[in-house]
């Protein structure tokens, strides 16, 4: 059964409500310059970084500066049954922020203030358009840091990362975004402002609505403010580079780290093709070895001792290990890791975001290579390996006799097999990017019809007219 075969009790497809937008009436509610309908704005808002678009695109892009303006937009849209697509930086990889036919894309880019940084409480209060790296940098000036760090942290916004429950490099130790969000201000369809959560680290009053909004992909409300946890900057850190002969060997080492008495702050894996791609862009000596790369960082007072232990585990599993020459080399390697996918000679047909339990890492990386080979495709792999989250892509390198349609079919069949194997191993179709549009194909396989139907029922409570990000997510 397809996800869209599920219907709300009133018979309407989940989250679909649509009337033509009266742009002049909307603009009249907002300060001049808030509503844009120029071609460039509409084209840019029609897709996120995945490139997915419904082929038409939004009717307007709205860039409010205040919470009240967001409330006006959602009251207007709800009354007129106009779809609203919340949007941060548009760096999402699942189509979640792509503006769909006739919608209002509500961009948070001008809601970009860090309202407060409190070392005493270990929290920051910020607007949704704040870029994650800026929040982290501001916290560091006070001796604290913001842990969630998707590889896109220099562009991704706080609101977008909350709406996708973004992961990243450091979450192997510090947890995904959900574990850093204490309280939210959310504007609901109709314009009501809801406050969830609390400023204290602990708090269990009532159902956890904060968690419900985290990862809800803009389908329940628009996040207009967040109180997030900050942590003390670790006293020390050490970064290890492990070179392995192949991906399964590196994956076995990561699985072994999982049961060792260490808690690394980052465990990132780059497969042979990914390393080869990076070698074209960087002359870092470590890339010349042409092997599989594992980057492991330890932090805190015990960083050096933990790094020793990690090095021993990696060596036992066939790794050639050394400490990064200095912080500059460590940061350069991490920056390359963050941009691993950019290779002009490699055409990505499909990129995935599966996650498995750590103990299944060797089996899933072996499956990726087998599946690619069976479908006559190349593949590339980067992974937040420490938490079992893989980003394999099925690619074409060089000329291929198959037609574009045949290649697309092969890539999709490969992705289907990868997801099936992931679910067999107890994993998930998306570790951090979200369902958006592109992962909906596999949603029922993972969640089951009961769970999806319940999620539609929850959506109907928050958004009875189905105006928020219709057709996206669950
Ligand atoms: C090079 C690259 C590396 C990446 N690495 C990672 C990674 O390591 N980990 C990871 O998790 N992701 C990663 N991503 C994916 C993406 O960057 C993250 O999902 C990010 O959190 C999205 O933030 P954004 O501001 O761009 O959100 P958008 O792409 O603008 O939106 C994402 C979703 O959130 C919704 N949304 C946005 N703002 C709000 C709001 N204020 N209220 C309610 N809903 C909202 C949108 O409707 C959409 O569904 C990467 C992307 C790129 C391009």
Produce the secondary structure layout:
Blueprint: H1 23-28, E1 35-36, H2 39-45, E2 60-62, H3 67-80, E3 84-87, E4 104-107, E5 114-118, E6 123-126, H4 132-140, E7 144-145, H5 158-164, H6 171-174, E8 181-187, E9 193-197, H7 209-213, E10 222-229, E11 231-232, E12 237-244, H8 247-258, E13 266-270, H9 272-279, H10 285-288, E14 292-299, H11 303-316, E15 320-323, H12 327-338, E16 346-351, H13 361-374, E17 378-384, E18 389-397, H14 404-424, H15 443-447, H16 449-462
Parallel strand pairs: 2-4, 3-4
Antiparallel strand pairs: 1-2, 5-6, 6-10, 7-11, 8-9, 8-10, 12-14, 12-15, 13-14, 13-17, 16-18, 17-18
The structure holds flavin-adenine dinucleotide.
Short description:
This protein is α+β, with helices and mostly antiparallel strands and 474 residues long. Helix content is 33%, strand content 20%.
């Amino acid at each position: 059964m397809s996800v869209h075969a599920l219907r709300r009790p009133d018979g309407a497809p989940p989250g679909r409500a649509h009337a033509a937008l009266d742009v002049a009436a909307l603009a009249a509610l907002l300060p001049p310059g808030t509503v844009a309908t120029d071609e460039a704005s509409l084209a840019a808002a029609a897709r996120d970084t995945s490139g997915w678009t419904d082929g038409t695109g939004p009717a307007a892009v709205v860039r409010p500066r205040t919470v009240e303006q967001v409330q006006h937009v959602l009251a207007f849209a709800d009354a007129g049954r106009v779809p609203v697509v919340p949007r941060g930086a548009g760096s999402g990889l699942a189509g979640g922020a792509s503006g769909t036919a006739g919608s209002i894309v509500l961009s948070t880019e001008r809601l970009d203030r860090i309202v407060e940084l409190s070392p005493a409480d270990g929290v920051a209060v910020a607007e949704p358009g704040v870029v994650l790296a800026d929040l982290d940098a501001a916290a560091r000036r006070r001796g604290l840091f913001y842990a969630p760090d998707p590889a896109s942290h220099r562009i991704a916004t706080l609101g977008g990362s909350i709406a996708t429950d973004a992961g990243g490099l450091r979450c192997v130790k510090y947890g995904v975004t959900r574990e850093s969000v204490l309280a939210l201000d959310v504007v609901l369809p109709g314009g009501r402002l809801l406050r969830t959560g609390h400023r204290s680290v602990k708090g269990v009053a009532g159902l956890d609505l904060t968690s419900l909004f985290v990862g809800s992909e803009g389908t329940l409300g628009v996040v207009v403010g967040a109180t997030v946890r900050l942590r003390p900057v670790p006293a020390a850190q050490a970064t290890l580079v492990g070179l392995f002969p192949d991906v399964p060997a590196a994956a076995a080492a990561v699985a072994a780290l999982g049961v060792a008495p260490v808690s690394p702050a980052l465990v990132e894996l780059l497969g042979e093709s990914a390393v080869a791609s990076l070698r074209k862009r960087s002359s870092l000596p470590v890339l010349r070895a042409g092997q599989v790369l594992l980057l492991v960082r330890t932090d805190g007072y015990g960083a050096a001792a933990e790094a020793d232990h990690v090095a021993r585990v990696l060596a036992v599993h066939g790794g050639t290990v050394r400490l990064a020459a200095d912080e500059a080399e460590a940061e350069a390697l991490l920056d390359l890791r963050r941009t691993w996918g950019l290779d002009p000679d490699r055409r990505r047909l499909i990129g995935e975001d599966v996650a498995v339990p750590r103990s299944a890492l060797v089996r899933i990386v072996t499956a990726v290579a087998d599946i690619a080979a069976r479908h006559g495709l190349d593949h590339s792999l980067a992974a937040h390996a420490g938490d079992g989250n893989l980003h394999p892509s099925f690619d074409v390198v060089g000329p291929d006799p198959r037609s574009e349609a045949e290649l697309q079919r092969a890539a999709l069949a490969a992705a289907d097999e990868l997801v099936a194997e992931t679910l067999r191993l107890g994993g998930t179709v998306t570790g951090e990017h979200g369902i958006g549009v592109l992962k909906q194909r596999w949603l029922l396989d993972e969640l089951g019809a009961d769970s999806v139907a319940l999620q539609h029922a929850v959506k109907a409570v928050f958004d009875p007219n189905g105006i928020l990000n219709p057709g996206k997510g669950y």
